[in-house]
Amino acid sequence: MSKGSQGAALGFSVHTGWAAMVAMAREGRTLVVVARRRVEMLPVPDAPRYEPPFVFHAAQELPLHAAQQLVHATEQRARSGAIEGIGAAIAGIRTAGHVVVGASVITGNEAPARSLEAILRSHAAIHAAEGELYRSVIRAASEDLGLAVLQISAAELVERAASALELARGEVPAFLTDLGRELGPPWTADHKAAALAAILALG
């Protein structure tokens, strides 16, 4: 890290085809938001349709070999989009005088590994696989860009962040409200979760 630069970390709240990203840094003893961004992995249609980014739904309509090709091609396209979006965010943060030192991805209840054939037999597994694919894409893209990546369960996020912030769990919502007040909208639940994740990655 160059003299005068300050460390920042990225937090991601991931959805099908996109992720909310918030970058946090310390300025003295104060935590500040230094960037927020929507990272587009794939174009998301106005209404859900069974096509990428809803790749496993689309794959369900195909023979297995074609389904495997579709999932692989979609994952590669999404990874390229994530690298582009995250890379642009890192460049902007660097211009503002911060060096990104890590990232954190909020995870769900990750299902045990299973074959594509098994996934496509279960509607619940299809939904779970969509989420897992895009979380893995954000993680891989961040690692491609040289970042160490922390994974944090959504169920543990607030508790762990409260501990890191030396706050009671019940004080976290007010902390997040204050954090977003100076920024102005949008400051959604995704932004708040991503901010907590970034704080954990910041260490």
Task: Explain what this protein looks like in three dimensions.
This protein is of the alpha/beta class and 203 residues long. It has one domain: Nucleotidyltransferase, domain 5, CATH 3.30.420.10. The protein is 47% helix and 23% strand. It contains 7 helices and 5 strands, in the order βββααβααβααα. The chain has a 5-stranded mixed beta sheet. Strand 2 and strand 3 form a beta hairpin. Helix 2 crosses helix 4 and helix 5 packs across helix 7. The longest helix is centred in the middle third of the chain and has 32 residues. It is globular and about 55 Å long. The two termini are 16 Å apart.
What is the string of SSEs from the N terminus onward? Answer: EEEHHEHHEHHH
Low-confidence segments, given as residue ranges, are none
Total number of helical segments? Answer: 7
Structural class: alpha/beta
Helix content: 40-55%
Average predicted confidence as pLDDT: 91
Describe this protein with a few key phrases.
single chain; 203 residues; alpha/beta; Nucleotidyltransferase, domain 5; five-stranded mixed beta sheet; 7 helices; 5 strands; 47% helix; globular
Task: State the gist of this model.
The protein is 47% helix and 23% strand.
